[in-house]
């Protein structure tokens, strides 16, 4: 029996996810970013989160070798930023409003929440790496609708 990878991916897309941008400092010290929908909490004590990145990504080495990264949870207004940073080679944060963090990798200025993380571990996960971060600092806004991804398309949830 053959395994239909495309159908598998489409089935996974039936699970709506939030969207985040992860930032790190590249070898040159300049920040770079990538869009992910594979962000989740791992532990409250100690505070830890994880996200996944394709090993074939041109951003794999900079993120897995960095001392830390910042996760910005995207709001409905971030669709263009998300699409831009999801493309291969489009990792520059130029012209995106940012705020400085103590760790170094910037956060998106108008993110719904952001988490500054020390790079705790990288695990093998098939064709992806699983990056675990220890949350050092975080902040959140009290307003804003989240950007979601469902069946290959962006959407938003109504703010309550």
Overview in brief:
The protein is mainly beta and 160 residues long. It contains 3 helices and 12 strands, in the order H-E-E-E-E-E-H-E-H-E-E-E-E-E-E.
Q: Kindly estimate the percentage of residues that lie in beta strands according to DSSP.
A: 35-45%
**Can you write the helix and strand succession as a string?**
HEEEEEHEHEEEEEE
Q: Under the CATH scheme, which class?
A: Mainly Beta
How many strands appear in the DSSP assignment? Answer: 12
**Broad structural category:** mainly beta
Distance between the termini: 46 Å
Question: Any guess at the CATH architecture?
Answer: Roll
Number of domains: 1
CATH superfamily: Electron Transport, Fmn-binding Protein, Chain A
Looking at the structure, the CATH topology is: Pnp Oxidase, Chain A
Order of strands, widest sheet: 3-2-6-9-10-5-4
Number of helices: 3
* Gyration radius, in Å: 15 Å
Q: What profile does the largest beta sheet have?
A: 7 strands, antiparallel
Fraction of residues in H or I helices: 10-25%
Shape: globular
Low-confidence stretches: none
Primary descriptors:
160 residues, mainly beta, Pnp Oxidase, Chain A, seven-stranded antiparallel sheet, three-stranded antiparallel sheet, 14% helix
């Amino acid at each position: 029996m053959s395994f239909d990878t495309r159908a598998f991916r489409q089935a996974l897309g039936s699970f709506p996810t939030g969207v985040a941008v992860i930032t790190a400092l590249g070898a040159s010290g300049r920040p770079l970013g990538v869009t992910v929908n594979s962000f989740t909490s791992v532990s409250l004590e100690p505070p830890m989160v994880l996200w996944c990145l394709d090993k074939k990504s041109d951003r794999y080495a900079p993120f897995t070798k960095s001392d830390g990264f910042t996760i910005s949870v995207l709001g409905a207004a971030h669709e263009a930023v998300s699409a831009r940073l999801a493309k291969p080679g489009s990792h520059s944060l130029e012209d995106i409003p940012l705020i400085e963090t103590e760790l170094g990798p910037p956060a998106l200025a108008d993110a719904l929440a952001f988490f500054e993380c020390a790079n705790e571990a990288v695990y093998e996960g098939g064709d992806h790496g699983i990056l675990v971060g220890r949350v050092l600092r975080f902040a959140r806004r009290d307003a804003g609708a989240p950007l979601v991804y469902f069946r290959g398309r962006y959407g938003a949830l109504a703010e309550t």
